[in-house]
Amino acid sequence: MAQDNLAVPSGDNKYVTVFNDPVNFNAKHPLHNSWTLWFDNPGKKSNANNWEQSLKELITFDTVEDFWGVYNNIMKTCDLSISSNYHLFKQGIKPMWEDPANKHGGKWSIQLPRNKTMSEIDNIWLYTMLACIGEAFEHADEVCGVVVSVRKAFFRISLWTRTSDNQDVAMSIGRTLKKSANIDGTLEFQSHHDSSKSQGKAWTV
Amino acid sequence: DIARTVSAPAPLSSARIENFGAVSYPTGIQSPINADPQGKFRYNRDFLMQFMSVCTDKPESLPSLEALGMDENDRRSQSSG
Fold first, then answer.
1. Which of B14, B38, B50 to mutate to test the interface with A (most CBs of A within 10 A)?
2. What is the pLDDT of residue B14?
3. Residue A198 region, left (φ>0) first, then alpha (ψ -120 to 50), else beta?
4. In chain B, what are the domain boundaries?
5. What sign does the dihedral A151-A180-A79-A74 (CA atoms) show?
6. Is residue A48 situated within a structural domain?
7. Which residues sit opposite A148 in a β-bridge?
8. Quick one: which of A81, A107, A109 has its CA closest to A96?
9. Do B26 and A20 touch (CB under 8 A)?
10. Is the minimum CB–CB distance between A18 and chain B shorter than 8 Å?
11. Is residue A15 part of a domain?
12. Which of A86, A82, A161 is closest to A126 using CA atoms?
């Protein structure tokens, strides 16, 4: 927050970025948050109800460079098998309702028909993640994480929020998500509490 | 300890950039334009996309695709879903 002049190299001794020298760079672009990528494919296990066991924490990163190193070395969404999910959450938040950060929250989500979205889903998911790591959201502290789910008939994109009782905040996040990820369609917001029961009132963007 | 890391830059020691004024990007590379006045690191999509083709090395701590049950067979067996 305060100027930290100690951290600035003096004279010609500047940072060498990956653009200046892709091999011998000495400085990376920090992210505001550390993010953890999770993957699960419960459908592959015989006991599909044990979801938590199939959930795998892949890696945590906190720089732009490391994000891309991860992204470029995992499967694209369009190549994942049915019932798989990627979850990108802030470090320390588990991608499940029970986590204290999610408990009172909700999610924006949209189901995109598989046949119509196959060619776009990789970019939609990528842009969703970039909006998170780049801190595109005005109320960024409200964002817990994002999920892409691969299903037989659709892909679902979800963004999980920390709270679910402030419509202005929720709407702002929903609008930014829709715009950032080039999503064509209507996103719906529901609190986790509502969606675990019957239909609650839904906000849409 | 950030200062300590930056004051002795060695190849691949990869310090975290603290001051974008001290970075000179090559011609054709867009600088981060929405630097946040509150010292928060914010990057727009166009800026971030520039790294896509440059940062391709697999992080050492990333599990293999096989370990994740994400092998190439998935890709083939699933063509027209």
1. B14
2. 74
3. beta
4. 1-52
5. negative
6. yes
7. A86, A157
8. A107
9. yes
10. yes
11. no
12. A86
**What ipTM goes with this model?**
0.88
Q: pLDDT of A1-55, one tens digit each? A: 444 444 444 445 579 999 999 999 999 999 999 999 999 987 655 555 666 778 9
Domain count, chain A: 1
Q: Please name the member of B23, B39, B68 whose beta carbon is closest to the beta carbon of A56.
A: B68
Instruction: Using alpha carbons, list the distances in angstroms from residue A34 to A26, A61, A135, A145.
Output: 20, 6, 11, 11
Query: Measured between alpha carbons, how far is residue A152 from residues A47, A86, A111, A113 in Å?
Result: 19, 16, 11, 9
Q: How many beta carbons lie within 10 A of that of residue B40, not counting itself? A: 13
Give residue A179's domain range: 34-204
**Interface contact B25, partner A, CB < 8 A:** yes
- Whether A103 is covered by a domain: the verdict is yes
Tokens of B3: 């200062």
Does residue A1 lie within any of the structural domains? no
Distance CA B76, CA A91 (A): 33
Chain A neighbors of B78, CB-CB under 8 A:
79, 81-82
- Under 8 Å between Cβ of A35 and A58: no
Instruction: Report the C-alpha gap between B56 and A67 in whole angstroms.
Output: 10
| Mutation choice for B interface testing from A3, A5, A10, A15 by most B CBs within 10 A | A15
Q: What residue of B is the nearest CA neighbor of A8?
A: B19
The CATH number that applies at residue A175 is: 3.30.760.10
Quick one: angle between helices A121-133 and A64-71, nearest 10? 160
Task: Write out pLDDT tens, residues A176-203.
Answer: 999 999 999 999 999 998 754 545 568 9
pLDDT, position A49: 60
Q: What is the DSSP letter of A181?
A: T
